[in-house]
Amino acid sequence: MLQKMKKVQVLGPKKDFQSVVDVLYHTGTVQIEDISKTIRPGDTLFRKMEIEKGGDIANTLVKIGGIFLALPKIKYDTQKQQQIYEELQKTSHHDLLARANHVIEELESTTKDLALKKSDLEFSLGALGRYEKIIKKIQPLESQLPILEGFEVTVILIQREFRDVLDFIKNALGEITKKQFEIISADIDETTIAAVIVFNKRYSEGVHSLIFSQNVNEVRLPSEFLGKPFNEILQLISIKRTKSIDEMVAIDENLVKLSTEWYQELAVLKKVLDDRNEEVGVFGKFGQTEYTFVIQGWIPKKYLQRTKEALKDAFGNRVIVNELEVSPEKMDEAPTFYDNPAIVKPFEFLMQMVSPPQYQEIDPSPILAIFFPIFFGLMVGDIAYGIIILVFALIVKNRYKMELWLQHLMNILIISSIPTIFFGFIFGEFFGNFGEHMGWIHPMTIAGITWNRIEVLVPLLILAIAIGVFHVFLGLSLGILNALTKKSKKHAIEKAGMIVAITGLLLVILAVGKMIPEILVQPGIVMIIIALPLIIYGGGFFGVFEIMSTVGNILSYARIMAIGMASVVLALVANKLGGSMEVALVGFCIAALLHILNIVLAMFSPFLHSFRLHMVEFNSKFYTGGGKMYKPFRKEKEDETVK
Amino acid sequence: MVDWGIPIGAGIAFGLGAIGTGYAQSKIGSAGAGTIAEKPETFGLMVVLVAIPETMVILGFVVAAMMMIMLV
Q: What is the SS3 assignment for A462?
């Protein structure tokens, strides 16, 4: 069932405006409407609410968020946070911003400096590690290097696959330095070669530009390492590393100290600012006069009292909630809010996949919840298949708890597996005719018919069509109700005419087919004659064609029998093929494979067709859809600490 | 002599229905895939639209099965 909605107006003095929005945000029951659209241009008394300080809050939030991230995480102190939260909740935007700015002043520059310094140190530690690795690898080459005054040493790294570049560089260096150079190379790991080049300082510029032009990775050692023996460089690296680590430890200690002092407050500030930022975002939808504000929105009737009480507790009689009178036409704009029992929820999801109902329409979900499993069960109708589908759905449901859509689909399968097992008993099917073959189960005899599906084709077809007639008539009856709710007399008459016409047509067909007394032909014809003007009055001349389309809809229910038959035949084929094998294991495997295929098809095809019978044949008789879902103004995800 | 008329008739009833459904589904399916790529929220509607032409093959199957069971 859909919940009744009320259109409300919240009015109060402007000084309480931000606090009222805050209360509404935390009550989370009102879907806010944009009142500014109703303001006449040039109206000086009633104006749109200007967005104030929105930018300030957003900027402050970014700064607080930055500081919060820079500080090391410490355990949430729920009690302390709750205390700060309650305190901050009550503060006005202005005071909240002042407090946040105070925190920013205290922390921003310190944390920024510390974080920057730490990241510099981390970078330099990384670089030192790289230098150390390279120098350790090329250290054995040091003995081969000539020790000459006025010579420069540089190290280049080359990918192994481009080792040919080395020869080219050698030749080019010879030309640039007039052969006053030495180059020694060695592999430093599986992919890289390091080459040490010693050359006369006079050609420094030329050599470096050559290396740059070849796009070769040159290891630029810091100036304090230049000209020093590798051993000494390694010692220097080690000293520098220890110093950097010590400095980082000191920075971390400082940050932890700041965190201990400020972390809880920052966490709450961030949350409250986040909420306020959300709230500021909807300010533009409100209206104001000189001293008052006006908020307008939709609220489910059952939440109205709760919302009124929340506002009364916070503001007494200063803020009032007006229930607005809305004309039936305007009620079409009301959002759709379902309030179905848990068993119907998965079917609500199916309805929403296509189109949610409009506010004034009958919600088809409960009807879907009744007929969908019955149709599914009639189509699959096998005890073993039903049990396997049930177990499969339970496993998937437990395994993927976070996937909401999968949960809904599996719930539908679980619900549908029960009629499947039930009809399995009636049809006497357990893996097709396997149960009957083993003597475990036999088709039941109801109304003088033994419901062995493969043998009772015609009774099954009649049953399917009868279900179709009932279902379509139910749809048309709901259509009459919908039309009466919307005060659309023409539509109601058209639907009623259609019921009479189809009943007349059925009487004629059944009487001519001698399934009912032939005398009923005349009443049937009379009914059709009476129905035609009603249909033409309600739906125009083309409404007559709707009769044929409705007959087509009813015939479409034959799929309940047809898909069921297909499923039985495939099960029989599986059993027959498996049984005809000489090796029992091979026969078992073949039968099992075919049954698995049939079960997979059974989960898909009857599901889809059952759904389609509702969406196309049934819903087309009364359902328009295209409703807007109820989206209250509230926080989507609750914080795990502060509630 | 074997009467081939009924099985052939049943085959035609089922086969033509299947061809018709297949053709219609190929058109609807490709258009639907394009629509879903642009608007993923239309998935549910597209599933229903693709299933609509299956009525033809199902009724074909019903006619074929009735011919085979009731006329033979």
A: helix
Positions of CATH 3.30.70.2750 in chain A: 126-230
Q: Tell me, what's the pLDDT at A463?
A: 92
Q: Is the pLDDT of residue A80 over 50?
A: yes
Residue type, A30: V
Two structure tokens written together for A283? 């300010």
Smallest CA–CA distance from A563 into chain B, residue = B58
Please give the residue of chain B at the shortest CA–CA distance from A349.
B44
Residue A641 in this model has a pLDDT that exceeds 50: no
Task: Tell me how many domains chain B contains.
Answer: 1
pLDDT tens for A220-267 read 777 777 667 777 888 888 888 888 889 889 888 888 888 888 888 888
> The CATH number of the domain where B27 resides is what?
1.20.20.10
DSSP state for residue A323 in the 8-state scheme: E
Measured in angstroms, the CA of A611 and the nearest CA of chain B are apart by 8
What fold, for A126-230?
Answer: Alpha-Beta Plaits (3.30.70)
In a domain, B70, yes or no: no
**Residue contact B48–A563, C-beta within 8 A:** no
How far does CA A129 lie from the centroid of its chain? 44
Question: Is B39's pLDDT higher than 80?
Answer: yes
Is there a contact between A179 and A144 (Cβ–Cβ < 8 Å)? Answer: no
ipTM metric: 0.79
Is B13 part of a structural domain of the chain? yes
Q: Does B70 touch chain A (CB under 8 A)?
A: yes
Residue B72 lies in a domain: no
